[in-house]
Amino acid sequence: ANMEFYLSQVTRAQEEERKRVAREIHDESIQSLATLALGIDAIARGKEKLSEDVLRRLKGLRAETDSILDGLRCFSHKLRPGVIDQVGLVAALEILTEELNKENSVKTSLEVAGSERRLTPETELALFRIAQEALHNVKKHSRATEAKIRLKFIRSKVKLTASDNGRGFELPDTLSDFATEGKLGLIGIQERTRLLGGKLLVRSWAGRGTTVVVEVADIQGMKG
Ligand SMILES: Nc1ncnc2c1ncn2[C@@H]1O[C@H](COP(=O)(O)OP(=O)(O)OP(=O)(O)O)[C@@H](O)[C@H]1O
Ligand SMILES: [Mg+2]
């Protein structure tokens, strides 16, 4: 019970810390870089007569600033996908899988079944984080060529499945065993599922891939 309490505190603290870092990136770094970009523009368009060479180099610096800005926006978006609150889990998962497809490593698809509806913000954020970590693991460990996220809206439940066709791995007796090796991804998934009062199933077959299934009750769905 102590370990569980500890893990739930760590999960909450992590989410808080991510929010703080995302806000800092947004408010500080992005703002400063935007100011820097304006400064470069001001020099380029200033009264002083600049040589072609200097202008070309300023243009290069400006382009580099823009690409750092893009990177930071993308990063802060990953830390705190505010997009979930606005457009919902399904659209956020679409963005996530599209991003992975752009990387050209694992072909990733999203499949939505049942009567699509909005869930509580906590549930949507947790399911998004779970999908994100599962896909992160696919990329990092599986050597899979294909990954699939399935989201199924059942009457009073929602089921999220992340599967790949990779090499699989041997599951320890309990997922907590990973913690001692400093591996916190699957344990984080377990913890998020527990906080939602849901059920987690991790299965893996040598040479045939891995499946992570999370099932949570949807109280709103039950009412509706
Ligand atoms: N989709 C997968 N395919 C193959 N192996 C996997 C997959 N997912 C997890 N594993 C194995 O399970 C281990 C535990 O995963 P977990 O996400 O908990 O830790 P990690 O990814 O190693 O580290 P962290 O998530 O903390 O960065 C991994 O080290 C890897 O060996
Ligand atoms: Mg991991």
TrEMBL record:
<keyword id="KW-0597">Phosphoprotein</keyword>
<dbReference type="GO" id="GO:0000155">
    <property type="term" value="F:phosphorelay sensor kinase activity"/>
</dbReference>
<keyword id="KW-0808">Transferase</keyword>
<dbReference type="GO" id="GO:0016020">
    <property type="term" value="C:membrane"/>
</dbReference>
<dbReference type="Pfam" id="PF02518">
    <property type="entry name" value="HATPase_c"/>
</dbReference>
<dbReference type="GO" id="GO:0005524">
    <property type="term" value="F:ATP binding"/>
</dbReference>
<keyword id="KW-0547">Nucleotide-binding</keyword>
<feature type="domain" description="Histidine kinase/HSP90-like ATPase">
    <location>
        <begin position="124"/>
        <end position="216"/>
    </location>
</feature>
<dbReference type="GO" id="GO:0046983">
    <property type="term" value="F:protein dimerization activity"/>
</dbReference>
<keyword id="KW-0067">ATP-binding</keyword>
<dbReference type="Pfam" id="PF07730">
    <property type="entry name" value="HisKA_3"/>
</dbReference>
<dbReference type="InterPro" id="IPR050482">
    <property type="entry name" value="Sensor_HK_TwoCompSys"/>
</dbReference>
<protein>
    <recommendedName>
        <fullName>histidine kinase</fullName>
        <ecNumber>2.7.13.3</ecNumber>
    </recommendedName>
</protein>
<feature type="domain" description="Signal transduction histidine kinase subgroup 3 dimerisation and phosphoacceptor">
    <location>
        <begin position="17"/>
        <end position="82"/>
    </location>
</feature>
<keyword id="KW-0418">Kinase</keyword>
<dbReference type="InterPro" id="IPR011712">
    <property type="entry name" value="Sig_transdc_His_kin_sub3_dim/P"/>
</dbReference>
<dbReference type="InterPro" id="IPR003594">
    <property type="entry name" value="HATPase_dom"/>
</dbReference>
<dbReference type="InterPro" id="IPR036890">
    <property type="entry name" value="HATPase_C_sf"/>
</dbReference>
